[in-house]
Each structure stands twice: as C-alpha cells, then as structure tokens.
UniProtKB/TrEMBL annotation:
Transmembrane regions listed in the UniProt entry: none
Gene3D superfamilies, alphabetized: 3.90.1010.10
Residues in NIF system FeS cluster assembly NifU N-terminal domain copies: 10-120
Name used for this protein in its record: SUF system NifU family Fe-S cluster assembly protein
InterPro entries: NIF_FeS_clus_asmbl_NifU_N
Gene Ontology molecular functions: iron ion binding; iron-sulfur cluster binding
NCBIfam families membership: SUF_scaf_2 (TIGR01994)
Organism of origin: Culicoidibacter larvae
Example GO biological process: iron-sulfur cluster assembly
Family assignment from sequence similarity: Belongs to the NifU family.
Lineage: Bacteria, Bacillati, Bacillota, Culicoidibacteria, Culicoidibacterales
Length: 144
C-alpha cells in the first residue's frame, strides 16, 4: 500500500467514526464516572462516562460537540477501552498520547486509532485528539 493510499484509508476511518460514532450518548446511572472537558481554543466540548466493575471498564460512553478529529477520537477511544482493565486502559491511553506527540509507541495497543497519527504534525490539533482520552483517564482515576 502506498503512503497516499494509507493516508486515504486513515481519512476514511476518521470520517466513519465522525459520521457514525460508536458508544455515543450518556446514560443516567450513578454507577458511571462522568467527566466533562472543554478545549477553549477550538470549542471542542465532550463528556465521557465510564462504568467500572472492579478494575474493568465495562462501558465507555461519550457525548459532545467538536471537530471531526475530537469526535472521531472519542469514538475510537470508547471502542478501544471497553472491556479493558484500568492498567490496560492506562497503557493504551499512554500509547495514544505518545503517538500524537510523535514519540515512540506500541502500534498494536491503539489499533484503528493509528489513523490519527497525522495529528502529530498539527500541534494545535493534538488537544482535539486527546481530549476524550484525558477525560477517560480522569474518570477511571477519579475518587468516587
């Protein structure tokens, strides 16, 4: 696959998650940890909910508005982290943040989220890509 084909494939993945977000919509349930974050520089506004059973993330949800990168990233994050342990989720979150910061990372951990690798070349968009990931990290480490 040529570099151009890879980039086109990545764009398709991003647009699919933006137009057809997975796990979108919040639930009214006190068992969920909810974090609300905003990116004042671009207007991204997202809420992330996580339901934990012991050390396992049994559900990850999101709701909000923002650019295609922010919304697609939240969708990918919710799919990737569901059913992970807190430790596994932390490893995936770290790998994702390393990727968008153009640092070495484990590609196997982030699966489809590799499609957001190009954000590393767009420093103002890094916060767009990481907003949901920061929110979920805050949620799983929040003292309830």
């Amino acid at each position: 696959m040529t570099q151009n084909n890879i980039e086109q494939w990545y764009r398709q993945i991003i647009m699919d998650h933006y137009q057809n977000p997975r796990n979108k919509g919040l639930v009214d349930d006190d068992a969920y940890h909810t974090i609300h974050l905003k990116n004042p520089s671009c207007g991204d506004d997202i809420q992330v909910q996580v339901k934990l059973e012991g050390e396992k993330l049994v559900d990850v949800r999101h709701q909000g508005s923002g650019c295609s990168i922010c919304c697609a990233s939240a969708s990918m994050m919710s799919e990737l982290l569901k059913a992970k342990t807190i430790q596994e989720a932390d490893e995936v979150i770290t790998a994702f943040k390393y990727m968008v910061s153009d640092q070495p990372f484990d590609e196997d951990l982030i699966e489809e989220a590799i499609s957001l690798h190009g954000v590393a070349k767009l420093p103002p968009r890094i916060k767009c890509a990481t907003l949901a990931w920061t929110a979920v990290s805050d949620a799983i480490h929040e003292d309830k």
